[in-house]
# Entry
Amino acid sequence: MVQPFKTDVAASFKIVYNVVRNLDLEKGHWKLHNVVERQTWRNQPMTRTNDTKFFENKLLEFVVEEDPLLAMLQWVTEKLIEVEVSHKIGAEKGKHDPHRTAYRSGTRVRRFDTRIGTLYLVPKLRKGGYIPFFVTEKKRSEQALIEVVQEAWKNGISTRKIDRVAKSLGIESISASQVSEINKGLDDMVEEFRNRRLESEYPVLWIDALYEKIRDDRRVQNMAVMVVKAINMQGMPSILAIEPMPVESEDTYRQLFFRLKERGLERVWLCVSDAHAGLHAAVRKEFIGSSWQRCKVHFMRNILAHVSEKEKNQFAAMLKQIWLAPDRENAVESAQRLITKYEDRFPKAIACLESGLEDSLQFYAFPEIDHRKIASTNTLERLNLEIRRRSRVVGVFPIIGSYIRLITTYLIEYEEDWQTGRSYIRAESLAKQRSSFHWAA
# Structure
């Protein structure tokens, strides 16, 4: 005796099949012919018909398959294809019809990857091409699978590892070319992000470099990739640029800033970076009227490099007080006390402090903005640590494009989170600070 549950499943399966058989594919629209409404299985007892028996047997066939769900999906897709092909050519398989517009012409393997597994679709027409409605010419993988592969790639997983991930999902294999094809969608998104139009005014830019191992002309070399982060007038963070630099020089930095201006940037209040001579010179020439803040953290490291280990903690504690002062005057006084105490014992450290002190105090010219957020590149350093954590998985990148794609997709996600979160600096503070500038009066 057939169990009631099995009978219900078979009947439900039959309904689905009948719906498929009665789909109207004309003009590209799916229309149901009230098949479900004609079923009485909801309100009446199940009756054993020949159709019900047929579907029970089909289910039993699927059960003994190695992957029952995959076998069932394969069967359903074949029926869907057959219905669609019949509508497309105007005749059912094996039947003569004067309204026929084309003929079947054997089979062609079309691989279709899904979350359940890999299917092989085989329709072929003598005249005109045919691709099933659920498979497009340029994207034969289910969107969910594409997202898995993209997410794996963004997290620094190699093609070989992605292949293992695919097999764990039931996909037989995935090649480097397939991963590349899938990532073309990412490339479009990356290029759009890197070339998008910018706002005309950004109060603060933070500029820092990442150094990665990139394979170039069969040689692995360290390459600098500049990341420019900013805040807009609403106080929301944004990534303005991710640009590779074969050589760090004034010219390459000027090219970077020139591209930002081509995309719409006109005015910057403050640029924060380390003391790279080329970067400093480029800021001075490309952003006329802007201030340059030497990162206090980098500056402290430069100074402490000339202090003995024995006295480094005491020296550092006194050094930090300079940038914790409430205003510029008190900061200069703290610096002078340090100079007086240590100028004879650590002359190189004191010379370094004196040469860069003024540039490290520029943040005091912006009293309305939280000094802790604009005195250093810490906000960008934290972001760079996250980037390095992901890029470390890859090790050596095959080309610079693969690195840029990985980093940019990660930064896009980060920016989306920023735009839905709290402002980094209050918009009211920025507006008040802006009103104090002579050019804004």
Summary: Residues 343 and 353 are 10 Å apart (CA to CA). Residues 143-182 form one domain.
